[in-house]
Design goal:
Helices cover 30% and strands 14% of the residues. By secondary structure, the protein is α/β, with parallel strands linked by helices. It has a 6-stranded mixed β-sheet with strand order 1-2-8-7-3-4, sandwiched between helices. The protein has a two-stranded antiparallel ribbon with strand order 5-6. The radius of gyration is 18 Å and the shape is globular.
């Protein structure tokens, strides 16, 4: 079997959070088993650049380990995230992403989310853990506090199409990474979809806010956080921040007190700019770590 520098999630490790619909019986595990079997016959190529034999080569995986992005739109956000689109405004909560949604980071996320590359869950979940570690304002003041990760819920239709709840899986990986680093973490399915809305791909900031308004609700059966736990909403991609804002609103309405939000990547908010360049095979030497 080809060995990846970022590894692979072992089948069956994902813990289903309370209140989430169960995925189609056996489908995620079957997809993962088939991916492993495929590696025995035809080794995978890097999802970022195509380098044979790697889920994500060292160079492409490094796109997720650079400077963190303060992703909440507004004057204090990182450059490119300060509201350079119509309708974007300052956010009252801290939102942190591990990378910009461009180049290799974008390619890895799309491959995982839309092309069945579950072998990328480990590297992407590790990136999410980096963002979580600084997303909560109270984390540095409360070094002994545990973390509760609340994934943005996905619709039943999206789960069926992808064969898994992709954000919940990444949250589970991030929780394990945080726990191994000394910060105990768990995943809670404290949110559920109340209203699906429409596909947001072509919507602007104002339309996204309207589309997400009232989309989520707190699940009454979810175990509430203890006093020593810090709650962080997690998602895969932050665009205008409308989805994270709705998730935080729904949690607060349910009596929770989220400290912030974290994501793997944030889309640059700019009205114009040079197109991002996809990594190429020449950029990516073999992994030697």
């Amino acid at each position: 079997m080809t060995t990846s520098p970022v590894g692979r999630e072992a089948p069956g490790q994902h813990r289903e959070a309370p209140g989430q619909h169960r995925e189609a019986a056996g489908l995620p595990r079957l997809r993962e088993a088939l991916a492993i079997l495929a590696d025995l016959v035809l080794p995978r190529a890097c999802a970022g650049c195509g380098l044979p034999g790697y889920a994500a080569c060292a160079r492409c995986a490094a796109a997720l380990t650079g400077p963190l992005v303060l992703a909440a739109p507004g004057p204090t956000a990182s450059p490119g995230r300060r509201g350079h689109v119509a309708g974007a405004s300052s956010s009252p909560f801290r939102t942190v992403a591990a990378a910009r949604f461009e180049g290799a980071a974008r390619a890895l996320l799309i491959a995982y989310k839309e092309r069945g590359r579950v072998d990328l869950a480990r590297v992407l979940g590790g990136a999410l853990a980096r963002a979580v570690a600084v997303a909560g304002r109270d984390l540095h003041r409360r070094p002994r506090a545990d973390v509760v990760l609340v994934p943005v819920p996905t619709t039943a239709a999206a789960r069926r199409r992808r064969g898994l709840d992709h954000v919940a899986r990444l949250a589970a990986v991030a929780a394990r990474v945080l726990t191994r680093s000394g910060r105990r973490a768990r995943v809670s399915g404290a949110l559920r979809v109340r209203r699906a809305g429409v596909d947001q791909a072509d919507l602007g900031a104002a339309d996204r806010r309207r589309n997400r308004s009232g989309a989520f609700t707190a699940h009454p059966g979810a175990r509430p956080p203890c006093r020593h736990e810090i709650v962080i909403v997690v998602d895969d991609i932050i665009t205008t921040g409308a989805t994270a804002a709705e998730a935080i609103r729904a949690l607060r309405a349910g009596g929770w007190a989220p400290s912030g939000a974290a994501a793997i990547a944030a889309t640059p908010l700019r009205s114009a700019g040079a197109p991002t360049r996809r990594a190429t095979l020449r950029d990516c030497p073999p992994y030697s770590g």
